[in-house]
């Protein structure tokens, strides 16, 4: 696409994640100031970004059960997470070396320029290289790191290898709730992700060159499509949206239709319902895409 598609929001975690990463782009610069100045600078930067965030996403606040996004308790936890980054003497505690280099929002690109990604922070010392990803929501499923985050940091590990010729020493994921995950990369997993990404890209390019339909490439599912910014432009998604939207969280619930809401998120319209029986009884929610009007 010549332009990034309109943002498509489906969850509180996604909304908070956008805010967290907007702040991460700014706060690393604060570490160059004296510690006495950092507190005020962080508070000003946080308040300014939060005000912009409130205006940009005001239409979504009711979906999160609040009249103001700034009132969400998770916002305070994100501030605490950012404070740790700004004030930590040895940032993250990942590398026991005072002579470290921090590359926030580091762009990584494969040698052939076909694969790319942006990691929250790449930290280097004389002896170690660490990938760090920050998440606004829960990072674990039971005792294990969520699979999408596990795959994400391993894909970044492959990009680090492509760019620097060596895999990172550690992969780390941190949540705003203070939870942490860290391990050495599984090289075979990283290599496999790189091969799969290139195979998909080659398949896409082959179909483009032959002017064939791309519909057969997309593998639609609740997990694969959740939070994807390209949903409004994906014909395969629209062909399966009923099945996707009626995910495990919605199936089996008795819903009362309240209204069709026009002009919501990137949808032309969506269904507003109330759960009358089952999980989250009494909750009002928006099911996007049930009444789509084609662009």
Question: How would you characterize the overall build of this protein?
Answer:
By secondary structure, this protein is of the alpha+beta class. The protein contains 7 helices and 10 strands. The strands form 3 sheets. A 5-stranded mixed sheet has the order 1-2-3-6-7. Strands 8-9-10 form a 3-stranded antiparallel sheet, with no helix packed on it. Strands 4-5 form a two-stranded antiparallel sheet. Helix 1 runs parallel beside helix 3 (73-87) and helix 4 packs across helix 5. The longest helix is centred in the last third of the chain and has 23 residues, at 187-209. The two termini are 16 Å apart. The model is unreliable at 1-8, 92-97 and 289-295 (pLDDT under 50).
The gist of it:
It contains 7 helices and 10 strands. By secondary structure, it is α+β, with helices and mostly antiparallel strands.
Distance between the termini: 16 Å
Please bin the fraction of helical residues: 25-40%
Q: Which ranges are low-confidence, i.e. pLDDT below 50, for 5 or more consecutive residues? A: 1-8, 92-97, 289-295
Lateral arrangement of strands in the main beta sheet = 1-2-3-6-7
What order do the SSEs take from the amino end to the carboxyl end, as H and E? HHHEEEEEHEEHHHEEE
| Percentage of residues in DSSP E strands | 15-25%
Radius of gyration: 21 Å
SSE-based structural type: alpha+beta
Mean pLDDT rating? 76
Oligomer: single chain
Number of H- or I-type helical stretches:
7
Overall number of strands: 10
Largest β sheet strand count, sense and barrel closure: 5 strands, mixed
Q: What does the overall shape look like? A: globular
């Amino acid at each position: 696409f010549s332009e990034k598609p309109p943002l498509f929001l489906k969850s509180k975690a996604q909304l908070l994640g956008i805010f967290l990463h907007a702040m991460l782009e700014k706060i690393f610069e604060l570490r160059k100031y004296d510690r006495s100045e950092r507190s005020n600078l962080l508070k000003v930067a946080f308040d300014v970004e939060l005000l912009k965030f409130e205006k940009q996403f005001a239409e979504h606040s009711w979906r999160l059960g609040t009249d103001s996004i700034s009132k969400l308790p998770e916002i305070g936890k994100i501030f605490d997470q950012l404070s740790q980054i700004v004030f930590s003497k040895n940032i993250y505690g990942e590398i026991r070396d005072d002579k470290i280099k921090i590359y926030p929002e580091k762009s990584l690109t494969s040698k052939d320029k076909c694969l790319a990604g942006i990691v929250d922070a790449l930290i280097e010392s004389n002896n170690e290289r660490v990938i760090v990803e920050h998440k606004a929501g829960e990072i674990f499923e039971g005792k294990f790191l969520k699979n999408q985050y596990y795959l994400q940091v391993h894909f970044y590990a492959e990009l680090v290898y492509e760019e620097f010729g060596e895999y990172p020493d550690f992969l780390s994921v941190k949540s705003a709730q203070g939870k942490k995950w860290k391990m050495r990369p599984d090289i075979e997993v990283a290599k496999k992700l790189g091969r799969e990404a290139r195979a998909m890209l080659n398949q896409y390019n082959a179909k483009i060159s032959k002017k064939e339909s791309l519909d057969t490439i997309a593998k639609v599912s609740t997990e694969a499509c959740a939070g994807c910014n390209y949903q409004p432009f994906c014909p395969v998604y629209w062909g399966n949206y009923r099945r996707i939207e009626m995910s495990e969280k919605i199936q089996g619930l008795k819903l009362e239709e309240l209204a069709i809401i026009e002009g919501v998120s990137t949808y032309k319209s969506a269904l507003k319902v109330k759960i009358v029986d089952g999980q989250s009884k009494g909750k009002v929610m928006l099911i996007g895409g049930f009444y789509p009007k084609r662009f």
